[in-house]
Amino acid sequence: LAKTTQPISMDSYEGQEVNITCSHNNIATNDYITWYQQFPSQGPRFIIQGYKTKVTNEVASLFIPADRKSSTLSLPRVSLSDTAVYYCLVGDHEVTGGGNKLTFGTGTQLKVEL
Amino acid sequence: DVKVTQSSRYLVKRTGEKVFLECVQDMDHENMFWYRQDPGLGLRLIYFSYDVKMKEKGDIPEGYSVSREKKERFSLILESASTNQTSMYLCASSLGEYDTGELFFGEGSRLTVL
User: How far apart are CA B32 and CA A100, in angstroms?
Assistant: First the structure.
C-alpha cells in the first residue's frame, strides 16, 4: 500500500511560486500520482495528475523524478484564493476486479497572505 | 460535468439511531467511495465499491456498512450511530477499470451524533 507524506502546513505570499513536495517511497509500477485541492466545507477537487517527468496544465505543474519516490506540486504566482488543503494521492491497484483503493494522506494546509 | 450528489448536507441524530447517507452520481462511473474527514486526520476511506453489489473495506470500516443496488447509487449505513461517528462524510466516484485516480467528490454530509 503506497503511503504518502507531505508537510502539514506552508505559508506564502501573493504572487509567489509555491512548491509542495509529497513523498511516496512505496509507489508501485502502475500507480499514478494525483493532487487534489480542498476548500472548507467542500469536497476535494482534482488539480493535476502524472506518471513521470513533468506535467503542466492551466492551474499547476507536477514534477516527478525518475525514481518516482516523490513528487512536487508547483503553483505559480499564488493568490489568496489558493488558500486550501492540498492532498497528494497515489493510486493503489491492490484490489482485484479493477477497482482501486484510493487513500489520502493528511494533506498540506497552504495559507496565502497579502 | 460529473455530478455527485449527497442527499443531506447536515444531519443530527441520536446515539443508537440507524443512519443512511445516500450518494448518487450521474456519469455511469464504476467506482464509488465513502470517506470520512476529521480535523487533523485528513480523509480516511471507509468503504468502496467497484461494481453493483460489490464492496470492499477501506481503512476504517468498523461501525459502517454499505449498499450498492444500482450503479449510480452508493449508500453508507450506520447501524447504530455513536458519538465518535460525528464527522464530515464525503462520497466520491471514479471512472472504472482503467481508472488513473481522478475522483469526483460530492459536497459532503456533516453528521452530528448526540
Answer: 10
Q: Is the CATH number 1.20.210.10 carried by domain B4-97+108-113? A: no
CB proximity under 8 Å: A 28-57 to B: 32-34, 36, 41-46, 49
- How many contacts does A have with B, using Cβ atoms within 8 A? 88
User: What value does the mean pLDDT take over residues B3-9?
Assistant: 93
CATH of residue A62: 2.60.40.10
Q: Which residue of B has its CA nearest to A9?
A: B40
Provide the CB-side half-sphere exposure for B44 (13 A, CA).
14
CA–CA min distance A64, chain B (Å): 16
Contact B93/B102 with Cβ under 8 angstroms?
Answer: no
Answer whether residue A77 is part of any domain. yes
Query: Which of B 59-78 lie inside 8 A of A, CB atoms?
Result: 59
pLDDT tens, B56-100? Answer: 998 899 999 999 999 999 999 999 999 999 999 999 998 876 656
Q: How many domains does chain A have?
A: 1
Residue A2 lies in a domain: no
Burial (CB count <10 Å: 0-12, 13-18, 19+), residue B32: buried
Give the chain A residue whose CA is nearest to the CA of B95: A99
Contact B50 A107 (CB under 8 A): no
